Amino acid sequence: MEPKIQPQTQARFWLFHRSDLVLLKLNPGQSIEHHEGGETDEGFEWTSRLWSHMGDHILIEWSVRGSDCDGRYSRGGTSVMALSELRAGHEYNDNGTLRRFPVYRSDREWQRDHSAEAINY
Questions:
Q1: What is the pTM assigned to this prediction?
Q2: pLDDT confidence of residue 38
């Protein structure tokens, strides 16, 4: 007996963007990219995120680049959300409506402190 193949479905999950609640929808094979940033009180910071529907999970790739009083820095990584866990995370009460968030699993993370690297620290 052959196993049943589950049809790929649209992934729908909640996230916060600039303190607002947003429902993100991704079809199988689809990716959505977002960039934001600008000046801060100590320099600047830019953030990039890419959400990709990989069939049975969502892959999130992110990076942050900026500069502050200590110099330039960058960090980033990847996280994974299984489609089966899109509503398995924490709950948020949105004016009487309960929203459930996905469970994120960090896959890898990296960071660079450009000033520390310049002095071989």
A1: 0.79
A2: 93
